[in-house]
Amino acid sequence: MKKYKNNEENLELLEVHCNKCGRNMRVENGILKEGCFHGDFAFGYFSERDGVRHRFELCEKCYNEVISGFVIPVEETQEQELL
Ligand SMILES: [Zn+2]
């Protein structure tokens, strides 16, 4: 869950909470200073949640717990440029 402060010019990131464990992640000057998985998915017509959008954040510890339960491991590649 992300909280923003609405400045006159733009949105400033204030807080990021992991949706699984609830931990408040480190944010400094509007920048998230640790790894965070951002989930954002709009369920489509053929799903049971037609038209519903889900958004959530996971800290790295919780992300690792989630993917450790996968039968098929995540696909992993090395990014050349990090944003
Ligand atoms: Zn967590």
Biggest sheet strand order reads 1-2
Element order: H for helix, E for strand: EEEEEEH
Give the oligomeric state: single chain
Overall pLDDT confidence:
92
Classification by helices and strands: mainly beta
Radius of gyration: 15 Å
What's the helical proportion of residues? under 10%
Q: How far is it from the N-terminal to the C-terminal residue, by CA?
A: 21 Å
In terms of DSSP E residues, the strand content is 25-35%
Sequence stretches where pLDDT stays below 50 over 5 or more residues: none
Number of domains: 1
Our count of helices gives: 1
Associated small molecules? zinc ion
Dominant shape: globular
Q: Let me know the number of strands.
A: 6
* Main sheet characteristics: 2 strands, antiparallel
Overview of this protein structure:
Strands 1-2 form a two-stranded antiparallel sheet. Strands 3-4 form a two-stranded antiparallel ribbon. By secondary structure, the chain is mainly β. The mean pLDDT is 92. It has one helix at residues 60-67, and strands spanning 2-6, 11-16, 27-28, 31-32, 36-42, 53-59. It has one domain. The longest helix has 8 residues, at 60-67. Helices cover 10% and strands 35% of the residues. Zinc ion binds at residues 18, 20-21, 23, 58-59, 61-62.
